[in-house]
Design goal:
elongated; mainly alpha; 66 residues
Amino acid sequence: MSRVEPEDYLRTLDAGARALLRSARGSLGRPVRACPGWDVADVVVHVGLVWAWAAEIVRTGERAER
């Protein structure tokens, strides 16, 4: 089994973020049925913060406290 390098994780997070932004474009104000009271923009911000937290852990090797 090959080792996964931190850069691989960061590329995956980046690709996911870009895909999320592309799919959200033009619909940021639309409600999200699965998240009552949230719109697409709320979900994008939330996911972005979680992925930024994860990326910081990958970059530093230390768990970032929130």
